[in-house]
Design a protein that fits this description.
single chain, 177 residues, alpha/beta, Leucine Aminopeptidase, subunit E, domain 1, 6-stranded mixed beta sheet, 5 helices, binds adenosine-5-diphosphoribose
Length: 177
């Protein structure tokens, strides 16, 4: 049974237990998916975020979801792409793993992610997709209580990159068997 899904859509419509926000270290909102999530959640989200004192790259902070149809928001600042020599790959993997750990601690069984860092932060999308898929799949292998993870892509190019990453990851696993 597939527990990692790639979809094309708007993460603010997701009814998963938690949605993950590609935030910045201030946690005070911004453009892209961060802006969309804050607009959909309403001003109470920013009020809660103001009290959190920011968040380091790769770490996460959770909030209520307010007007969003999910139960929790999990905010994680992804790495800004500096060419791949500033530990970006590890920090991006940390965003996915720490978000799943935080979601599970809140009792979440379903989580939706955007394509973290591949917009304003300019992380190459295929490289990011491979990191996201491998991090999520290794978490799911050791955490059967997490029922389903969805990566919600906002455009076709991103969607294709994540679908390719998932197919390659599944193929590599099959090869190992
Ligand atoms: N639903 C799902 N994905 C979305 C949505 C949405 N409503 N809106 C945008 N996206 C996608 C973008 O198309 C991109 O593929 O989210 C991905 C991440 O892009 P950004 O939102 O630019 O995030 P990121 O690259 O991590 O940069 C974070 O941008 O918005 C600011 O405050 C944010 O400073 C932080 C920086």
């Amino acid at each position: 049974m597939q527990r990692l899904h790639i979809t094309l859509g708007d993460i603010t419509h997701c009814t998963t237990d938690a949605i993950v926000n590609a935030a910045n270290t201030s946690l005070l909102g911004g453009g892209g998916v961060d802006g969309a999530i804050h607009r959909a959640a309403g001003p109470a989200l920013l009020e809660e975020c103001r009290k959190l004192g920011g968040c380091p790259t790769g770490q996460v902070k959770a909030t209520q979801a307010y007007r969003l149809p999910c139960r929790f928001g999990i905010h994680t600042p992804g790495p800004i792409w500096h060419g791949g020599t500033a530990n970006e790959d590890t920090l991006l993997s940390d965003c996915y793993r720490n978000s799943l750990i935080a979601a599970a601690a809140l009792g979440c069984r379903t989580v939706a992610f955007p394509s973290i860092s591949t917009g304003v932060y300019r992380f190459p999308v295929h490289r990011a997709a491979n990191i996201a898929v491998s991090t999520i799949r290794s978490y799911l292998r050791t955490h059967p209580e997490m029922q389903q993870v969805t990566i919600v892509c906002f455009d076709q190019t991103t969607f294709s990159a994540y679908q390719t990453a998932l197919s390659e990851s599944e193929y590599n696993d099959a090869e190992k068997r």
